[in-house]
Amino acid sequence: MGQLRSVQQISPPPAAIHPAEHPASAPLLWVEAISKSLGTGTQITKIIGSVSFGAQRGEFVSVVGPSGCGKTTLLMCLAGLYTVDSGRLTFNGKAVSSPPEGVSVVFQDYSRSLLPWKSNFDNVLFGMKRITDMDPAAKRALAGDLMASVGLKGFESSYPWQLSGGMQQRVAIARGLAARSRLLLLDEPLAAVDAQTRAEMQDLLLDLAKKYDQTCVLVTHDVDEAVYMADRIVVLSKRPTTVVADLPVSLPKPRDQLQTREDPAYLGLRHKVITLIRSMRAGAATQES
Amino acid sequence: MKPWMKKSTGIVLFLLAWEIVARSGFVPRTYFPPVTQILLAGRDMLTSGELLEAEGKTLFRALSGLLLTIAFGVGSALLAARYALVARMWAPVVEIMRSIPPAALVPLAIFALGLTPKLFIGIVVFAGFSTVYLTALNALTNTEPVQINAARTLGYTRNEMLFRVRLPAAWPEIFTGVRVAAGAALIASIASEMLAGKDGLGFMLFDTAFSMRTKEMFAVMLAAALNGILFNQLVVWTRRPLAGWQDKLNAQGDAR
Lengths: 289, 256
Fold this sequence. Notes:
The structure holds 2 protein chains of 2 kinds.
Chain A: E1 29-38, E2 45-55, E3 60-64, H1 71-78, E4 86-91, E5 94-95, E6 103-106, H2 110-113, H3 120-126, H4 136-149, H5 165-178, E7 183-187, H6 195-211, E8 215-219, H7 223-229, E9 232-236, E10 241-248, H8 259-262, H9 264-288
Parallel strand pairs in A: 2-10, 3-8, 3-9, 6-7, 7-8
Antiparallel strand pairs in A: 1-2, 1-4, 4-5, 9-10
Helix pairs in contact in A: 3-5, 4-5, 7-9
Chain B: H1 3-24, H2 35-48, H3 50-82, H4 84-99, H5 106-113, H6 117-141, H7 145-153, H8 158-196, H9 200-210, H10 214-255
């Protein structure tokens, strides 16, 4: 269990940046040559070799790679749920060694991440643990607003398991925003919902990111989704993971399911990323044989 | 025909068959008295007050014992779930406790606790504790990892997580243990009264049986059964606010 690994916890990198060295224009999330191994004893596997990238304030970064490339491990590190073995990882200028305030995670497995004994509304309230400057009434008002923002007005008193997959994930997103996050880490949040809902949810996420001023890191294996949503795409190698490409996306905003996906720039980028991932897979196949 | 009609028809037919067999002389009447005579004997015992008094005593012993079992069992499971050292230290102790039949403890308990209500309550607690402790610990340590991770990223400390995520998630499984402990509590209360009691339903059962008052013995059995039904209902009522969500969730899953 993640919470029990304090024994092997390493001290945070000594070079935690001081605010003076860290102007407002600096990236909100900074990842510099981090590595991570999982397992114990002889079963240790190096998952992340060396990964570096950053996310500017308000930026939407998509992280893609071949399947089993350690995307989820990377996201667990970014969330502070795993401590990195080496390298530097900072959020808002501070080294990340435990889950930092201001970072919310939307997990792929919404049906397991929401609390089934709480109503949808109470699940959103559950996200406000760290908020101390609001009285209960103000918190309830904010939770109500968030429920409306994710399009779930009227579902406050029902339970997550009474909703469809897409709607459950909306509750999870509202709960993440309820923590007044600045960075949303999205771990394949739409992998388990149907295609039509997925397109709808992509646009909802982009709208919410704008409305609530969120910086987003989306980890996904869906290249189309990665390109459609991103301002920048980080392409990962297979394990042990390194960054293969860090590509800017210069598609006009707001994105549109029809126009964006027919844009030659979108198609070109999609082609490029898929080719990259495919070449890694072919490489892996020849290595194995 | 409504469900309750079907159910009660079954009971009526069963009692009727009993009455006919008992009166036919097919079985010795001393050992198997007709239902009507049992009910008459029961009515006499009720009006004299002795049955109600015994039933109340046994119910108090079983119920207070069960409440203590739940408090100790869940409480120590919470400690063990929070501190791995406690769990490791407790494990062999609970393992030994589990292998001792509660009735085997009665002689020791008579010396240690005396012939007091403490004796019966102590046996009841002993009978159910390991079950409640083990199911609760298992439930508390098998929380969905995603729920734990989600709560951690939202800033919940380990202690907060224990009470706000792990315990609520564990209630449905804990109640399976409680249900078993409730059955054990009823058995333990009656058995300890049989072995060491001078009152209560268990004592009355032996008392009436050994003096060949079989009609009265059956009436006491009926009273014990009523206690069992009441007990079960109490568990169902307490379970609903804590673990009722699980049933609704399961029903939802079946409907899909």
